[in-house]
Design brief:
about 230 residues; mainly beta; seven-stranded mixed β-sheet; globular; disordered N terminus
């Protein structure tokens, strides 16, 4: 067993960084400002260490508080519109459940200093080279686009960038814990996506993913090696 692990640690750097996979079913509300999401993430431990937790980026949740890192960045840049924004104009992510393949709940928390991250505790350490799949149910409340130009506008048109949950990159023995500060940095790990969008009647969808329209109001999106899912 020790010899197997030793050989595995030697081979992992030669195998390359295999991607994580994410399957998403997202339904837009009739009001056009909320998205209900069921997401299955398959996380591949490409490090040479055992992982006891997985960190996800939930940058949409940065719009939920006027004390977030994003809010403080706006304050430093004298962007007063966020501080005076109404509850309706703010965004947030409401988590309903995180469950493993056996439908057992996984414990999680949002770090106090990074409310737009989600730390998921694993029941058993994830070995190097191993994979784990888990399901997440959550609701996205889309923010107004007047803060960053992403969100919904007064005509209910939406443009989304940091809306979907992404695994954080793992580097130098730990996950990158970067909060959304409306900068160009991107700490998302490369992930393959398959997305089904429901409730998008009378909308034309464009994206950095491949888009097909199998039925009225229904869109299918797919892409590989992504660290961003842009949706217009």
């Amino acid at each position: 067993m020790k010899l197997y692990r030793f050989l595995l640690l030697l081979l992992l750097p030669l195998l390359g960084q295999a991607q994580h996979q994410s399957k998403v079913n997202a339904t837009l509300s009739s009001e056009g400002d909320k998205i209900n999401v069921f997401q299955e993430i398959t996380y591949h431990n490409t490090s040479n260490e055992y992982l006891e937790q997985i960190v996800l980026n939930d940058w949409n949740h940065a719009f939920s508080s006027k004390n977030s890192a994003l809010a403080k960045r706006f304050s430093d840049e004298f962007v007063r519109s966020f501080y005076y924004a109404s509850e309706k104009e703010l965004g947030k992510t409401t988590l309903f459940s995180i469950r493993d393949r056996s439908d057992l709940p996984l414990s999680y928390l949002r770090p106090e200093k990074h409310i737009d991250l989600i730390e998921i505790d694993l029941k058993y350490p994830l070995a190097p080279g191993a994979k784990i799949s888990f399901n997440i149910r959550y609701e996205i409340k889309i923010p107004s686009d007047k803060f960053t130009q992403f969100g919904y506008d007064h005509n209910k048109k939406i443009e989304l960038k940091d809306w979907i949950l992404f695994p954080a990159r793992y580097e130098n023995g730990d996950f990158l814990r970067y909060s959304n500060e409306n900068l160009d940095d991107n700490p998302n790990a490369l992930t393959d996506f398959e997305i089904t969008l429901n409730g998008f009647e009378n909308r034309i969808i464009t994206s950095n993913l491949k888009v097909t329209k199998p039925a009225t109001g229904l869109y299918s999106l797919s892409g590989k090696n992504l660290n961003l899912v842009h949706l217009v």
